[in-house]
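Deliverable D5.2: sample structural annotation.
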Amino acid sequence: MTSTPPAPRPQPAGTAPPKRPRIVPVPVLRVLAHERRVMESLVRWVTRRPHGTDGADAVFTHGRDQATTMYALTFACVVETGALSLLLAGLPVLHAVLLVVDVYTVLFILGLHAASRTRPHVLAGRTLRIRQAAGVDIRLPLDRIASVRRDTRFTHEKKDGELNLPIASQTSVTLELTEPVDAPTFLGARRLVTVIRLHADDPQALHDAVTRVRFTPGPGPEAASQT
């Protein structure tokens, strides 16, 4: 005698099916995506293909002032790699493992600098795209900016509602916003800020461009219907 399995209970109308758990956690995916952008930036740096600048009205680089520090750090890592290779010559397995780690570290440091050089701040239309290396990418509508000013700082205190994006420990432009905008953390957590401090190789040019566009009337309904 065979038993008949019970029929599944009908789902109430409008009830969404249960979500399946993610195989890979979101923070891990964000870390992997960051690593991919860093390595991609190396290729863009070598081939001189900046990211996200197509159709831009103005581009503002921001990685120049950290070049000396990044190159010095890279050189130190290369020297360390050579020294470890000599010390571990009699331990081939450990030598191979550390060699892979050291080479990746050198590429990663160069990739971080390459990301700063190939991912500039971009002004397109009435939106300012603010970036820092491969970890920060914020599209800020200019109508959210209450004020923009030249403001060179070398020390930054962590405060709620403020985002500091220093290059070589300095920021040179401060944006005060009319309302909070979301600037997610590295792992994707929500972070609302009303003040953004950033750096540019030519901060005066960024300040002037943002100020000019902010006070330039946008296309009205009649102009928009004619385009």
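Annotation notes: Residues 220-227 have pLDDT under 50 and may be disordered. The two ends are 77 Å apart (CA to CA).
The annotation will be released with the project's public dataset once the embargo ends.
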